[in-house]
Each structure stands twice: as structure tokens, then as C-alpha cells.
Amino acid sequence: MTEEYINEESNHTNGNMVIDNVSSDSNKKYSFEDFNIPKPIGMVPADVPPLGYKEFKSMFPRIDLPVQKIQRISFGFKDLQPNSLYWGDNLHVMRNLPNESIDLIYIDPPFFSGREYNTVWGDNNEVRSFTDIWEGGIDNYLKWMNVRLFEMRRLLKNTGSIYVHCDWHASHYIKVEMDKIFGYNNFRNEIAWCYSGGGVPKDAFARKHDAILVYSKTKINVFHPQYKEYSEKSQRLVKSRGGVSIDGRVRDLARGKHMEDWWTDIQSLQTMDTERIGYPTQKPEALLERIIKASSNEGDVVADFFCGGGTTPVVAQRLNRRWIACDQSRVAIEVTKARLTGSFNGSTQHTITAVPDIELYYWGTYDAGKLSDLSSSEFKDFVIKAFGATRVMNEFYDGLKNNIPVLVGPSSLKKFVTGDDVIEFAENIKSKSAYNRGIITAWQYDQSVREAQDFLRSEGSEIQLINMDLIKITDEKFREHVSQHEKSHPSYKRYLRFILPPIINVKVVPLGNLKYKFDLSDSISQNNAQFINLQIDFEYKGKFRPSVILNKIVKCAEYTFPYAGKHTVVFSMQDAEGGISEHIVEVDAI
Ligand SMILES: C[S@@+](CC[C@H](N)C(=O)[O-])C[C@H]1O[C@@H](n2cnc3c(N)ncnc32)[C@H](O)[C@@H]1O
Questions:
Q1: pLDDT single digits (tens) 234-271
Q2: Same-domain status, 553 and 413
């Protein structure tokens, strides 16, 4: 290889990144053979674009799909701006969020381990996404990460910071890429979070720390130093010298010592820990508490786009921050919801201030049943965006696609578009706007539409009827703007799917002495998927606070009521495609 790298004396400038020249030997010419990869900092890593940067547009094209609001969970303070929980691929969710709107981002993405990843939740959405992440090795992993880090940088305010939680598998690669995306000068810390427990390799020291890479967006980042107690020895010494240490500097014993970038005082979660929910990769709340306190203020927006079981939003809420959380696993979202509703209630168990509502949104996969809850205008907005058309406010049609008028049928899954509707639409667009082509999208058509189409054709008008089909949108026309990317990026196939809620059937079997068996094995997934998550609130009091059973097989539970009389039991079942529904049973316990 003959490639040469010249160490320039001046600072490198790359877009809005300024990179300090850190080498002292400025005139020496280096040939590639002089170095082992990775190349020295200050020369190469910071002034070449991040891996995949030029391919972002082709590898991860933007698809304009709508965000569907599914639910609002209320804590009794409806005037406060709600926090947001998103189910969907974080890249596309982030692309729907505005610039410079977030103060702090913490992420704990799946680690690159070079082998098949053990899924956390096991639902089909998670399993599908792992193929994109791991195929193509570390290169592909870094591209997958970079495009997301790039969006995160856009979302951060100028005073904002990002914490990326990684481990030895890829932290060194991610750091180089972050230097390029956030700027070498905006590196703040590489925190070594040290813990013990678990296995030990035979041929190396035990790997017992994670690396948390911290970058700020600019030089004016919010940072509140955190303090820890001086060691007993230092305390004794300082006290004996009247508050001054050996180096003559005053030590504030009450405040404590500036915390270093190695943290040994926060243990990883153990089996018996009360905050442990029982899924792998759960991070301790104390870790998030330190990060959130250090790099945000009360009222700031904290985001976690790989939120897993919701450690970040729970801690952010407790510390009176606003939050945005996202995960591509529907089970993770349900666990997060349950954790939040279990931790906070109207009377604010954990906080001294009011708790805002939570809004749950879907991106990419949609709840077909909930679409009929939308107002007619919201439903039209939704369908027009999903269809890749432009919304038009007009009494004759609802949107335009390639300059062809589009009419959206009724939101109810049970209503049909009739032949008369088709003729009326064709006549309207012809007489009012001189169009002789049109498109109707609807859940269902009755048989008379074919005849109407034939009649219109004989009159010189062509009306195309597009079926919005559940689960699979079979009509390529409907998912055109998604399917045009499917060949180059197969994962896009999974977007724009509609799912239906499961039908829950519960058999209640009294076992005597207030004990009951609840058998849900006759429940049916309407998405042809396995059941994956069962949640039950045996003592329902107006807000669903379930115990979580993450198990593909368990469809039965036993419970002994604490006293005789009426009890409301609520069941929530989730299938692997993300379909979810709740079911209420009243039990008169004896
Ligand atoms: C290591 S876990 C996070 C655990 C979390 N810090 C906690 O304490 O519970 C990583 C999470 O990232 C999610 N994930 C992976 N790829 C994603 C993507 N493209 N978009 C959104 N979430 C994703 C996984 O479903 C998983 O829940």
C-alpha cells in the first residue's frame, strides 16, 4: 500500500467540526505501513466521513409513514405536556422528531458481538431487526449505528449531551465514529462503569466494565459535577490539617470529592434486586440517575431510543425531567408502560411534582382496530401519508398522488365502498377538476364496484380501487413508496403492516379458599403469531398495574385473593407481531 498521510499543522475543519491537531511531529510524512490500524487520532479518523455516511440515503432511505397515536395514559394532570413512548424502529421515529428538541440522550444499543445476538424480548419485530444489524459484520453494525447517531446529533440542543453505553466488543470502533459525527473536541468522557459477578475467561482478565462514551453537541454543554465521599483516610487527614489536604488545597468534606470517570459504586443488577424486572440487559436505575443529574436540569427533555424495559424514562420521570422513549420491540414497550404506571400514580409516589400523561405512538406497524377510533379527518391524514400521497383539503378528494386524485374510504373496518360511491367520485373529479383518473383506498368494497368501474371505463374514466388489507398490504400500489426500497433494503418489507388485537378468552376455575386458576389457552392471535407476553393485574383499581409474565408458553396463572368478595382482574395478552388486547374479568372470590 502506498497511501500517504500527512500530518498537517493547521486545525482540520470538517463541516462544522473543528478537529485539533494533536501530533507534535508536524512535518513528518507517514506512509501507511508505519502504522497499525487504527490510524493515529488527529490524522485520519476525525477528518474522514463516518462509515457509511455517503450511503445513508441509499442504505436507509427515508420513508414517509405516519405515526399512529394509540393510547394516552393519564396520571391526572392532563394540562401538562405529555411524555412520548414510541414503538418502532428508532431511525424512522427520530426522523419524525424536530431539530434541537432534546437535552440529553442516553442509549444502550445492542452490542456488536460478531455472533448471533441473544434476543432480549424474542418478539418477531426484534428478531427481524437483528438480521439487519448483524449481517455484514462490524462494518454493517457501524453503518447501522452511525445513521442513528447522526439523527441523534440533529435532535440534540446545542447545550445537549449524548451517552452511548457500549462494551469491549465495539466501544473502540464506536468512539472513532463518534469523533467524526460529534467532533473530536466534543468528546467529554469515556466512563468505565465497573461491576463484578458473572463468568471469568480462562485466558484473560475478567472483563468487568462497560464503556459509556460521552459527547456534547457543542462546547456549551450542561454539566453538573457529581460528588462522592472522600475516603476515610483522606477525611481524617484533611480534618487533622484544618480542612486542607497535603497539597495545600481546601477540601470540602461535606460536599465530597469530584467524581472521576470510573464508577465502582454502582453494581450491576443481581437476581434478588428489587428493581429487577427479569429481562437481560436491564441497567441499574442508579446509573441513569447519575447520568441524568450530571447532564440535564429539571424540566429538560431526556431521550432513550433503545429504551428496553424503560430504565431511562422511569428515572427521568422521578427526577422531574420530560422524556421520549422508543423501542422496536412491542414487548419492551409494554414492560416500560407497566413499569411507569407501577412507579407513578396520581398522588406521585416518587416525585413531589405532578406526573404528565404518557402518549403511546406506533410507527411502521399499525393497529387496524384503533384506526377506526380516529376522527374522519385524522383517518384521512393517516391513510394519505401511509399511501405516500399529498394531503389536499377538498370536498371531492383527500389527496393527490402523482397528480391523480385519491379518495379515502370510511375508517370503520366494517363499512364498504359501493359502486355508487365510485361513480360519484369519478363524476366529481371530472366535472370539478377535469380529472379522468382517480384512486380510491378503502378496507372493503362491495360487489357493485366492478360494474361501476366497467361503466366508467366506457365513459373514458379510470378509477383504481386499492384494498387496505390487514397484516399484509398485498396491493403493491398501496405500499409503493415502501416497496420501491424493499429490494435494496429488505428490512423495509416489514414497514406498513397492520395488525389486529388478539381475542382473549379466560376460563376461571375456583380451586377453593380464595384461590383461582385463570386459563387463557383458548385465546386467539389474529396475526397468526405466538403469544409472548401475558400481564395480569389481579387487584385492578382503575389503572392497569400488572405483574409481567414474559413467557411464550405460559397461558395460565393462579392467584389467591386476600379477602372474600368482588375483585376486578385485568389481563393483557400480546402476540409476537405486536398485537395486544386487554380483557376484564369480575371475580366474586369465596
Ligand atoms: C440492551 S437493550 C436496552 C436495555 C435498557 N437500557 C434497559 O435498562 O432496560 C437494547 C434495546 O434496543 C432495542 N432495539 C434494538 N434495535 C432497535 C431499533 N432499531 N429501534 C429501536 N429499538 C431497538 C431492543 O429491542 C432492546 O430492547
A1: 889 988 988 888 888 888 999 999 999 999 999 988 87
A2: no
DSSP conformation class of 54: G
- What is the total count of domains within the chain? 3
- Regarding whether 562 and 542 lie in a shared domain, the answer is yes
What residue type is 133 in one-letter code? I
Q: Which amino acid is at 435?
A: Y
Shared domain for 80 and 217, answered yes or no, is: yes
Domain presence at residue 142? yes
CATH of the domain at 427: 3.40.1350
pLDDT digits 0-9 by tens, 3-47: 232 232 233 333 333 323 333 344 444 444 443 334 445 544 556
CB 39 within 8 A of CB 5: yes
Are 126 and 191 in a shared domain? yes
257 domain residue, yes or no: no
* H-only helix segments in 183-310: 232-240, 285-295
This prediction's pTM: 0.84
Which residue lies with its CA nearest to atom 26 of ligand 1?
Answer: 308
Identify which of 105, 306, 489, 495 to mutate to test ligand 1's pocket (most ligand atoms within 8 A of the CB): 306
From the number of C-beta atoms within 10 Å of its C-beta (0-12, 13-18, 19+), residue 98 rates as exposed
Distance CA 434, CA 102 (A): 47
Q: What is the mean pLDDT of the chain?
A: 85
Our answer on whether the CB atom of 125 is closer than 6 Å to any ligand 1 atom is no
Dihedral sign (CA 242, 243, 244, 245): positive
Domain annotation covers residue 37: no
* pLDDT tens digits for range 186-213: 999 999 999 988 888 899 999 999 999 9
Please give the C-alpha separations between residue 124 and each of 188, 330, 576, in angstroms, as whole numbers: 37, 9, 5
Residues 85 and 209 placed together within one structural domain of the fold:
yes
**Is 252 a member of any domain?**
no
* 501-552: pLDDT as tens digits: 999 999 999 999 999 999 999 999 998 888 888 889 999 988 888 876 666 6
Parent domain of 218 = 5-20+68-224+266-364
CB 123 less than 6 A from any atom of ligand 1: no
Q: 127 with 15, same domain? A: yes
What per-residue confidence (pLDDT) applies to 45? 53
What pLDDT was estimated at residue 271? Answer: 77
Would the CB of 332 count as within 6 Å of ligand 1? yes
Cα 175 from Cα 173, distance rounded (Å): 5
Cα separations (Å) of 129 from 109, 219, 490, 578? Answer: 12, 35, 11, 14
Alpha-carbon distance 411 to 413, whole Å? 6
In a shared domain, residues 11 and 133:
yes
End position of a domain, from candidates 364, 384, 414: 364
- Please work out whether the CB of residue 328 comes within 6 Å of at least one atom of ligand 1: yes
Q: Which of 364, 384, 417 is the last residue of a domain?
A: 364
